[in-house]
Amino acid sequence: STSVLAAALLFRGLITFGLLRIRFPRWAASVVAVVYLGYFGYDEFAEGLPSIERLIPASLQMLLFFTALKLLIVSRRRDYFYLGLLAFLHMLMASLFVGSVLYLGLLFLFIILAILTYTSFEISRGCESGAPIAEDIGALNSRQLGRRLAVLAGVLTVAILTLSAGLFVIFPRTLGISSLQALQGDFRIGFADEINLGATGTLALDDSPVMHIESMNGADLDGLRWRGVGLSHFDGVRWSAPLGKSVALSPETGVTPLIGERRRAPQGREIDYAVTMQPLQVKALFLAGQTESIELPTRSFRGIRVNETDSLLIDSGGLQPLWYSAKGWVSDRDSFKPAPVVELFSRKFQNTYLQLPPVDPRIPRLAWQIAGPHRLPLDKAKAMEEYLLRQYSYSRELPQQKVDDPLAHFLFERREGHCEYFASAMAVMLRSQGIPARIAAGFYGGIYNPLTGRQVIRGSDAHSWVEAYINRYGWMIFDPTPLVPGFASGWMSYWLILDAIESSWTSWVLDYDVNHQLALAQVVQTTTRDAAWNLISFSASVAEFLQKLEGLFVGLPVEPDNVPWVLLMILISSSILLWLSWVWLRPSLILWRKGRRLQSGKGETSDCSYLYAKALAVLQRQGFRRENWQTAEEFARSIDSALLRGRWEEITLSYNAARFGADAEAARRLPGLVAALQRLP
Fold it and tell me: Which pTM was predicted?
C-alpha cells in the first residue's frame, strides 16, 4: 500500500510540474473505490467479525489506498480539503504504530503545515470570491505575507499543543497509549527462547533500549545478569526450552511471594527494583539474582507461570510494554565452599539436565583434562569457567562458512566466538562430567543513566551464561565468556540524553494512566501546600518589615493576615497601570518603529500606509474628515487652514511617491512630515 501511495505522489508531482499531461476520470475512480470497498468488506467480514489486531492494519491499508486514489483525481478545492482530512487520519493512525518521541516532532510539523495550508486556503478563497481586503493586508508582498503566516502558525501551534497537553493530563483514563500501540505486533530486538550455533557472517547488534530498571532501595544494579529463559535441550546445534507444562504460581492479583530457589548464600545483598520493558517476542520476565517476590499490574496480566527451567512467564493480553517490580537476593559466589555432599537426582531430572547428543569425542576428553585434578562438582565447574576465560577470546565475527559441528569447530579450530559458544561449550563439558547444567539467556550489565536514575538495558546487552547444579547449593551461575568491548564513549553523553527523552516520553505519555494521574495530582497538592506555607512565611516577613516603616502606612493595620491582600492590591494596581501605559504608548511605539524603518531605507509599503492613516487621524481631530468619495486633491481643497493644507499636500506627494513610485527619498521624508503635522496646534 505504501508503494501505491508513493506512485500516486510521483504521478501527481509530474502533473503539477507539467511533465505529464493526463487526467484520471472521476467516474473510473468511483468505480475503483466501490470495488475496493466491496473487496474489503468481503475479505474482513466473510468469516465473522475480525479481531482488532487484524482490523487496524486492514483499515490502514484502506486509508492509504483512498489517499492514493484521491491524489490521482485532485483538481477541485473540495478535493484538497478531503486530502487534508486524510492526512489528519494518517497522523492518528501513526500514533498507534510510532511510539518514539519522534512522533511529537512530526506532530508539531504537521500542525504548522496544516495551519499554513488552511490559512492560505482561506486567503485564496477570499480573493476568488471578490471580498474586500484591508489596505494594510493588500499592501503586503509575498515575503511579508509569508512571515506573518509563519508567526501565526507558530503561535497557534504552541497554543494547540499547550491546550492538548493540559487536556491530556487531566482527562480521565484507565490504560496508557502503549496498550493501543501493542496492536501493531512489532517485535523489538533480538531476544528469542532458543540458541542456534553455526550461523555465518557478523553478529549484528542493536543498541535500542529494551528495559529501564530503577533501583527502589538504592542498590547498585550494574553488572547484574537479568535472566529470562532457561534452555535445557541440546541437539548438537540448537538449545531450546523444554516443552513441558508450566505451573501457575499465583492468582491474578497482588504480589507473588518467594519464587525461585530458596537456598541463599551466606553472603550477598538485597535488591529491590522496578522494570519497564519494551515488547519482546518472548513473554518472559527478566529477573536478577534469586527472586523472592514479584508484583505485576493486574489489569495487564492474568498471572505468572513457571516452567521446568525456572523461567517466569506471563500471560499478557498483547505485545505492550511490561511493568513489574521484584525483590531478590544477589549471592556472593565466593561464599560458596565445596562440600562433599551427595544428592540423588530423579530420572526425569537426569534426562533433562544431563542429556547430550552425539558429540565430538575430543570435547569429553577436554572436559576430563580440565576437571581431572578436581573431585568436587563446584571445583570442576570453576576450573572449566577459568579455562574458557583464559584460553579463548571473544569475537562478534561468525564463521564465514557452515561447519558440520560448530561447537567442536569453536573449541579446537577457531578458538573465538560470542557468548553462545562459550556457554554451550561449558554446559556440554559439565554434562559430560555428570554435572547437571543448562543455559540461561537474558541480558547482562547495561548502562546507568544519571539523567533518569535508571539502568538501561540495550538489545546489544543480550547474553547467555551457564547454570550448573551444585550439590548443597542448587543452581549456580557460571559465566565463561570474556569481557565484551564496551560502548563507544564518544557518543555516550548524546545517547544518554536521547534515552532520557525517550524514557520520559514513554513514562509520561505512552504509559500515562490513572496511576500517573494520581501521582501527578499528589505532586501538585504537595507543591501547592508548600507554596501556601511559603506565602504565609513571606507575609509575616513583609508585615514585620512594614511595621518598621512608621508613618508609611498610616491607618492601615499591617498584620500578617492582611499582607496577602495588600500584595494582591499592589499587583492588580500595577497590572492596570502597565496595561494603560501599554495602550497609551503602543500607537506611538508603532509609529516610531515604522518611521525608523522608512528613514533607514528598510521600510515597507504597509509602513507608508500606516503613516498616511495617522496623518488622516490628526486632521480628523482638527475637524477635517475625509469622506470615502473624496480624492486626495478634493480633500486638500476642503481644508480651510493654509498651514494644515500645505502640510497635507506635502504628505500626500511623499506618500504617493514612496508607495507607488518606490521613491526612497520620499519614504525617508514621510515620517518627519507626519511628526511635524502632529506638532501643529
Answer: 0.59
